[in-house]
Write a structure and sequence with these properties.
single chain; alpha/beta; four-stranded antiparallel beta sheet; binds adenosine-5'-diphosphate
Length: about 230
Amino acid sequence: GATIELENLTKRYPGHPEPAVDNVSMEIRAGETVIFVGPSGCGKSTTLKMINRLIEPTGGRIRIDGEDVTRIDPVRLRRKIGYAIQSSGLFPHLTVAQNIALVPRMTGWSKPRVRDRVEEMLDLVGLDPGDFHGRYPRQLSGGQQQRVGVARALAADPPVLLMDEPFGAVDPITRDHLQDELIRLQRELHKTIVFVTHDFDEAIKLGDRIAVLRERSHIAQFDTPEAILTN
Ligand code: ADP
Ligand code: ADP
């Protein structure tokens, strides 16, 4: 895992008087799973996108293992951070296998290693590789697309996972399995995970700590599930 430090992080979208994220500071420890919960529109996705550099903050800074993210080149950042989102974000013109292979290929893995890894990742998310690897995203259900999105996020074995409601459309049995896989990745590989969910049971099950956010991502509470439940 890796530590993630947010220092006075702020984002103002052009044309919006109110910041979406206002002066947020937080430290996420290496190997820790932190859950973001909070009302829709409070800036959870914006925060994850800034950590991942899909959007630039308008103020403050982000450090991963002490290194300012603006100093990490794009390929190295993709290797460091796996990103899975509610809408899957799959590239529609690439097959399932090509989508999953993207970051490992960028990283320079050999073809056989990439092929094995794609298969392993499809197995992990419970999709039969023979059936699914050549399909295009539009040929999958919403839940299957999300599962491929999770497979893609994990493919290059990044130390950091940013997951924005990644299991929202997944059926309950598969979701349970994926939650268990995530716990295993955390325990065995010490991934640092930031996970957004509206599902309180999921938050309790997965979180080492839960950050309860209010408008503009102000932190109302940041504590263990036990402490949050007793407050
Ligand atoms: P959450 O993930 O907690 O639902 P978001 O980060 O998506 O919240 O959004 C935070 C705020 O920023 C909302 O008010 C939203 O409307 C606004 N917002 C999000 N993306 C954009 C954008 N690209 N341009 C302008 N405003 C945005
Ligand atoms: P571009 O240079 O075209 O903006 P990006 O690398 O910024 O490409 O990301 C393009 C898309 O890839 C994003 O919309 C997102 O869905 C997906 N993506 C972003 N970060 C990652 C990641 N770390 N791992 C896998 N997919 C990612």
